[in-house]
Amino acid sequence: MQTAPSTAHPWLDGLNDPQREAVQTLSGPLLVLSGAGTGKTRVLTSRLAELVATGEAKPWNILAVTFTNKAAREMKMRVSGMVGPMAEQVWLGTFHALAARMLRRHADLVGLRSDFTILDMDDQNRVLKQLMVADDIDPKRWPVRLLGGVIQRWKDRGLTPDKVGVAEAGDLANGRLRQLYEAYQARLLALNAVDFGDLLLHMLTVFRAHPDVLAEYHGRITHIMVDEYQDTNVAQYLWLRLLTGPDRNLCCVGDDDQSIYGWRGAEVGNILKFDSDFPGAKIVRLEENYRSTGHILAAASGIIARNESRLGKTLFTAADEGEKLRVNGYWDGADEARSVSSEIESLQAAGVNLSKVAVLVRAGFQTREFEERFIAIGLPYKVLGTRFYERAEIRDAIAYLRLVTQPSDDLAFERIVNVPKRGLGTASLQAVHVQARASGKPLMAAAIDLVTTDELRPAARNALGGFCKDIGRWREAAAGMHHTDLAKMVLDESGYTGMWQADRSPEAEGRLENLTELVNAMQDFDTLQGFLEHISLVMDGDTDSEQGEVMLMTLHSAKGLEFDTIFLPGWEEGVFPSQRTIDENGAVGLEEERRLAYVGITRARKQVHLSFAGSRRIHGQWQSSIPSRFVQELPPETVIEDIAQGLGGGIPFGRASQARLAGGGEFGDARRGGYGPGWRRMAARQEAGSEPSFTAQGNAGGFASGDRVFHQKFGMGNVVHVDGDKLEIAFDRAGHKKVVAGFVSKP
Q1: Which segments of 191-279 does DSSP mark as H helices, in order?
Q2: Which residues lie closer than 8 Å to 684 by C-beta, 6 or more apart?
Q3: Domains detected in the chain
């Protein structure tokens, strides 16, 4: 419902009733539950303008907190357009920027000078490593990134060294991580330096230890506004709680259904307990969506309603119902990439600008097959982040393979001669370059010459000699082994895979997945040379983008964005929801995965294409797949009547899975309409004999140890073990595999 125009405060014009209520509630605790596409940014900026224009608060008495500098700049620009130069006097910025501003004023209270340095990640790790060496803590046993990450997580939870219990530290760093944390903090003070976690942590210390300082801020800051409150961590939450004065004029805007950053410290509980933290708080729900069609909103709402930890809201739109979601199944990931690409080409042919189309994946490694296909057909695309073959770990791996095949490749030599670290410093590498110039040889040949002399220190000479021998040994091995096996050998024996396995940073797991996906990609080529030539073409594969570019990104990266058409591939159990997330976090992890599904669907304005594959190559192994539980959670009325259309006459998943889908069981019951009328018709055709009749059986379809069986991907083999509907099979060519019984048949 639109309200009447307001000439006095034009920013109120066009607001619906809940939006206007949020904007005009200027005192007391207020939680604005803003669903996807409900005008959150407009409400934030309008409320800030309303505070200033009504005189409820002076600009310098308002603290407005955002999560990114970009959001802060956008908010300041919008408010300046509403109320003029006064907007410049608002305390507006990110958590870290505002905390740093405060800490400069009170640095002496925590033993710092006001000109302290804020260290980046490399400097932090360098300081920590020095302390580890001094305390005889082996960086190889306990990687610096791992220990530094734990310390940063403690800081995100507001824990100073004295607040870290014995159980918290466990046996990390030989049981001395708390003491290492204490020494690290002392070293930073001696350097007059802080890391990002310290900005908030030190201000928590100041506020708690110096009530007069906190009282000063209560007098100075009368109103606080916070964006994306569902993404705050514990330290940010505590900082806000302490800064909120006795009048409790705190307005938090957020969406508990879009809290998807638990893996980096965000606490969805902060928003869920707002009304208990601030008794009597007003909660305003923004539920009218201005982005998506009715069917898209109903589908997203149907999925997220399964979560128990939520405050609850129901999105609606004044727009029409629009198109229903399309849900397609495919034989494998490559088939999925081809079909999605074909759909996008059809949109392009119909005149759709490709910048309005996005492919959103759960994990970064999934982008590779789409990138390969887009390049092959000349479809313009853009990866939000880094393209697969441009990622550092992929470039490193390719450099190793290039040097094995062509020892005169100086660029490859320079890139990986000291990756992972081999103790080769600047002086050693400079000596190699000098020798190469003097002899007119490539760097690799110059290095081989140099290790036979006394030019280098013994340690460096041994390290360089070992590297050269490894390259030579792998080069010899290349003649007698498959190039994928060679790649695995090089990555393992060089220590490169081990380097990332030892790294406990959040991105390390993704880098390992990307390396595995690289080896997977090599299987599509007859030779290593052919693959490397393909990579060269891929890296040079710029495309014409006059019609825009398809956006290819992860679901996490897509938050805050919107597109006319969204493709959501890979909706299979284990991929999405992520099995690792569920294993590590249980029900809490599953609920965050479901929120991620909600975020993905609500990025779309007009169309959603959702898909899954019957088998997918993951970590180098073909795995049978069943559709994600989130597919089953889609309300039937939001999906096209026959979701099996476009499958080319075949059902792309195993027989046991088909039975569950078509006839009931784990993934829906056709009699309840769990997958819409299409599945019921398929089941009816099976009963009538026009489709093969597939029945899930408790004894794995009658298979027994010793049976001769056939698999679509792996060929012929013998059953060696039966465990429910899981079979272990010794395939004639593919070796031992574990598969779902529905994927095999008796010849």
Answers
A1: 196-209, 211-220, 234-243, 269-272, 274-277
A2: none
A3: 17-103+202-288 (3.40.50.300), 117-191 (1.10.10.160), 290-380+543-653 (3.40.50.300), 389-515 (1.10.486.10), 654-696 (no CATH), 700-745 (2.30.30)
Whether 29 has a pLDDT exceeding 50, the answer reads: yes
SS3 of 315-370: CECCCCCCCCEEEEEEEEHHHHHHHHHHHHHHHHHCCCCHHHEEEEECCHHHHHHH
Burial of 454 by CB count in 10 Å (0-12 exposed, 13-18 middle, 19+ buried)?
exposed
Q: What confidence tens digit (pLDDT) does each residue in 382-400 have?
A: 887 667 777 889 889 999 9
Q: Which of 549, 538, 181, 170 is nearest to 352 (CA)?
A: 549
The pTM assigned to this predicted structure is 0.68
Per-residue model confidence as pLDDT tens digits over 320-375 = 999 999 999 998 888 999 999 999 999 999 999 999 999 999 988 888 889 889 88
| 328 strand-pairing partners | 611
DSSP codes of every residue in 598-656: HHHHTTEEEEEEEEEEEEEEETTEEEE--B-HHHHTS-GGGB-S-TTTTSTTS--S-HH
Q: What is the pLDDT of residues 213-242, one digit of tens each?
A: 999 999 999 999 999 999 999 999 999 999
pLDDT band (50, 70, 90) for residue 681 = very low
CA distance 200 to 194: 10
Catalytic residues: 40-41, 227-228, 258, 603
What separation in angstroms does the CA of 149 have from each of 119, 125, 131, 317, 402? Answer: 15, 10, 15, 43, 34
CB 46 within 8 A of CB 70: no
- Residue 120 and residue 148: Cα distance in Å, rounded? 12
d(CA 296, CA 312) in angstroms, rounded, equals 18
* Cβ neighbours for 159, distance < 8 A, ≥ 6 positions apart: 168
3-state SS, residue 744: strand
pLDDT at 303: 96
Instruction: Calculate mean pLDDT across residues 466-479.
Output: 89
DSSP state of 3: P
Angstrom distance (rounded) from CA 141 to CA 135: 14
Verify cis geometry, omega within 30 degrees of 0, for the bond prior to 627.
no
